[in-house]
Amino acid sequence: MVDKKLVFAAIIAWGLLACTAPKTTTPKIPRSLLVRSTCGSLEKATISNEITIGSNTVGTISNYRVGVANIWERELPNDKGVIAPRTSAILAILDPTSQQSREEMVFTGSVISLGSDRYCVINVEYSDSSSSSITLRKIKSGAKIK
Q1: N or C end: fewer C-beta atoms under 10 angstroms in the chain?
Q2: pLDDT tens for residues 32-47?
Q3: What are the residues whose beta carbons fall under 8 Å from the beta carbon of 74, sequence distance 6 or more?
Q4: In terms of DSSP bridges, do strands 100-107 and 57-61 run parallel, antiparallel, or are they unpaired?
Q5: Angle at CA 46, nearest 5°, toward 101 and 61?
């Protein structure tokens, strides 16, 4: 026979445990990581050469070392402030001259600055395999981004 007090205690313990278990929430993105400007008119403002960097790799762009990591879907605001799921990546950027580094979170439409050059993120591609990547296109010098 099963002791009723033992069963009752087990049910109470399970209920308390379920109530105190951590809830799954969308992580808050630090404002310092989020790039807010967007590309606007790509055809007029960019140069056609595209640069693709794979996830967990590092490339050299405009003499900066740019590493790409953590490509996945996050809840992020668009240019109008509406929060929606979008595929994004974290870029680790190193200026080899000053040895200063920074991180930026980017998604399709983001603009990043590397020295005096600016680049538009034209694609962030997530894949379950190791082929996740981002694609950048250089913005013409002096071009206005809307």
Answers
A1: N
A2: 444 555 675 545 555 6
A3: 26, 27, 29, 85, 86, 87, 88, 105
A4: unpaired
A5: 30
